[in-house]
Amino acid sequence: MDVSTSQSSAPLLTNNNGKSQVSLFRKVWEENKMVWYIAGPSILTSIFQFSLSFITQTWVGHIGTLELAAFSLQNLVISGLSFGIMLGMGSALETLCGQAYGAGKLSMLGIYLQRSWVILLGTALPLTLISVFAKQILIFLGQDKDIAELSGTYSIWMIPQLYMYALNFPMQRFLQAQSKVMALTWISFGVLTIHIPLSWFSIMKWGLVGAAASLNFSWVLVVILQYTYIVSGSCKDSWSGFSWSAFTDLLSFMWLSLASAVMLCLEYWIFMVLIVFAGLLENPEVKVDAAAICMNVEGWTFMVPLGFIAAVSVRVSNELGAGNAAAAKFSVWVTVAIALVTQTVFVILILITRNDFPKLFTDDEIVMKEVSTLAMFLCVSILLCGIQPILSGMAIGAGWQANVAYVNVATYYIIGLPIAYFMGFKLDWGLKGLWGGLQVGIGLQTIILLVMCWCNDWDRDVQLTKDRFSDVVGGRDEEKS
């Protein structure tokens, strides 16, 4: 199935008979199938892995409010911080492995995987200090002493999960670059089916210790099964064993990993800022609860764009590696259109049920009313977070992480955040003002990325990709076991 032209300069949307409409329909349909081939399993994988902590949190809620608060605080702040950094740094592999696969340099995928392991495991060492001193950090942030103390203890128990993140994310990107996404889905589903009863038994038997043990075990199992799949022969062309070449060229790899982490973390953390600001408003308990419910809903709907991020980054990087600039650009626009359709469905459902869906999360009438009044802002965020992640995935596939990181700093924190503060506190618009200000930043970032995609010289990106692998052709950077 090939929707790309043989050369990037060839007309993309015409055929030999000049019937452009027929050709356009066929090419959109073929690209749509390829996007969903990657995005569908990726969406399911994200849901299954997201459900690991969600299920554990549900069982912990039956122990006591203190344990639930400690778990939630650790999962959102301590683990969430490490998760964002590891996810971002692992995304560098999407650029390199995807382009190497498209260029036919399959032997380099295994080298890149090992380099990413070295970088992420090295990063996990200083991040461990965050878990060790979680109690002091949470108290410094003004959290209740009892909750902070228990959450700090739980954070230490969850240190193994941090190192599983360092191993897991590179393997996921390694397999996604080769479109081996069904394996990830089945592994995640299998682990989830084991985790549900194991987590319930462990928590009911040993409390919060059981929660940590079951969650750590499940992530260890994910890593073991993915590694077993890779070395079993399913990736024989891209994995030929460990190599000393993994320890070469680490500096440039580190730079791309850091740029990826900054780009994604700036996007991830901006919504944590919204929660913090909500706690500074009048009647903060209601505001925080309402904001948290909306973020929860958006989190679940975000599972779909998360799959599209994987799909578009793979498609763009593969096509650039293969020298098909026009096909890479075409894939971005098709994926954006698909995302708009799927996110519009979510928006319609939320608008229809705006007075009913809050009942799934709370029995408090005041909180439910507050959530209902925020439904329109939630819908705008869902639409923006349907388009914007696709463009972030495009940036990852093309290797634009550093440039997009600067865009995120400017739009989110220099423009969006001050506007949110002004509207929320100075104009006294409350949570609506805070959220609206942040949406100004997100909207501006989305517009800039759309312009970057439209005006970008994609042929230049193809040449940069060729230059990246020119040394491989000469044999200087080939894998040597």
TrEMBL record:
Does the entry feature the keyword Membrane, yes or no? Answer: yes
Molecular function via GO? antiporter activity; xenobiotic transmembrane transporter activity
Q: Which NCBIfam families match?
A: matE
Regions that span the bilayer: 34-56, 76-96, 117-142, 154-171, 183-203, 209-232, 253-280, 330-352, 372-391, 403-422, 434-455
| One GO CC term on file | membrane
Keywords assigned by UniProt, alphabetized? Membrane, Transmembrane, Transmembrane helix
**Where does this protein come from, organism-wise?**
Papaver nudicaule
What CDD domains would the database entry show? MATE_eukaryotic (cd13132)
* InterPro entries assigned: MATE_euk, MATE_fam
Q: Topology in the membrane?
A: Multi-pass membrane protein
| Protein family per UniProt | Belongs to the multi antimicrobial extrusion (MATE) (TC 2.A.66.1) family.
**UniProt keyword Transmembrane, yes or no:** yes
One GO biological-process annotation of the entry reads: xenobiotic detoxification by transmembrane export across the plasma membrane
Primary site of residence: membrane
- Protein name from the UniProt record: Protein DETOXIFICATION
Q: Where in the cell is it found?
A: Membrane
Q: Which is one Pfam family of this protein?
A: MatE
